[in-house]
Amino acid sequence: xxxxxxxxxxxxxxxxxxxxxxxxxxxxxxxxxxxxxxxxxxxxxxxxxxxxxxxxxxxxxxxxxxxxxxxxxxxxxxxxxxxxxxxxxxxxxxxxxxxxxxxxxxxxxxxxxxxxxxxxxxxxxxxxxxxxxxxxxxxxxxxxxxxxxxxxxxxxxxxxxxxxxxxxxxxxxxxxxxxxxxxxxxxxxxxxxxxxxxxxxxxxxxxxxxxxxxxxxxxxxxxxxxxxxxxxxxxxxxxxxxxxxxxxxxxxxx
Length: 254
Description:
Layout lengths: L2 E2 H8 L3 H9 L7 E2 L5 E3 L1 H15 L4 H9 L5 H33 L7 H28 L1 H12 L3 H24 L5 H14 L8 H13 L1 H10 L3 H13 L4
Antiparallel strand pairs: 1-3, 2-3
Helix pairs in contact: 1-2, 5-6, 6-7, 8-9, 9-12, 10-11, 10-12
């Protein structure tokens, strides 16, 4: 069966603009263009679009998706199995969160007693599993399983007071970083204050600190577009600004 660009967009639940962009960057070309100039897509393109959308759901960049799908070693069945495994992991995470919410409802209705630790267990587990899903491979390769698992253990054992303080600190860090970015001075008081807050934030997860590890992490914020996108939501170019400020804070230039 064949589809026009409008029909395929409607079928997939995306915009025609997205399909045109996929065409422009060579990610998804139409099977042909008819005599009226309309893009026409066939079954092969439908299957490829499905695969693209799978990876987009996992937060993979379009450039990386293109590399994956055009790789000679790409195997659609294996890719689908990998995607299924990630979905099952997400299902487990949601089931734990739902169980936590249901228990909280039961506590509020007076049917069960819930400890303070249990109240935050679901949220902490959600943070851990989301981080592992998005960045697990990279951080384990960079820092090792022992360091990553130790960080997760520290988060799991966090008290209610520590968890609330962490949330407050995260907000303060982002606000300070935005104000510092607006000054345009990575050596300024606000920028260096943001670096200090970032160190303080890190120590909720790290068991020990080193300037070298801190600098390496911030450098990764610039190199990895997922981290970069997070900081660029604060302000475009914020990841680079934090890196420049951290070079001054740590004294490590490269």
